[in-house]
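Hey, can you fold this one?
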Amino acid sequence: MIKKTMLILILLMPLVVFGEEIIEFRKDNYYIEDAYYEIAYLIDNKFEVEENYKTRLIYGDTSQTYFFEKTIDNSFSFNYKGLDYKYNVEHKINNIEGDSLYSIYQSNKDSLRYVFGEKYSLLKEIEYFKIKYTMDNFALKNNMYAYKIGNDFYEIKKLTFKIIAPFATEGKEILFSLDGKNFSKEIDGLSVKLEGSAKINGEYNKTLNKGEEIYFLMYDSNEVIFEVEKEKTNNNNLYLIIGGVVVLVGLSAFLIVKKVKDKK
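Sure. Predicted structure:
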């Protein structure tokens, strides 16, 4: 009886050691292998956006990936030089293409969610999706042009983009940010080249995690004066005026005293 019990325990040992790995199934790994964005600013406070995705699906032990999702917001915001900026926009779809069927859901009052796929048809290992839309009623804030690039649901392995500016880019401020707060001409992993006078080509050679976004900001530094700079200028002017008044009062007092002494 003891030998039989020992034999059972020996046979159960692999389950104790490797049990967790045996029970835990590998999940599907679904990500955007290649993403390309093109943002073109048009007249009448509009800009046009085209998003192209090549997705890759590595199936797990129990395949459950049926859908590819994309959310488009009706507003976005960022912070620059200590000031908060919010852009309200309304998007209108011009074209949608994909290897799978799509449907549209109202996520909330501020965004729409586009879903590609069918409930009983798994996505293929590689699929392509394209969404092209126009953003209307784009209210400029302080003559600054801005937008964001990224995806809410998936990580992006390779990201390239083109920005078609509404002006010649020479001498303009063109800045980027990974958090919508710290803007710089250069960020780690991002390479940017100018094409012609008004096109900006960019490539991000790191993985952009789901929920992360790259913000860009463009403006003419000769035309834009920020509120904080106005405040500093106004304060400086105030200090100059006060200083001038103090000098005049002091000079007047000196002349009065000198005049009194001369009479004596």
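The first strand starts at residue 29 and ends at 41. Let me know if you want another pass with a different chain boundary.
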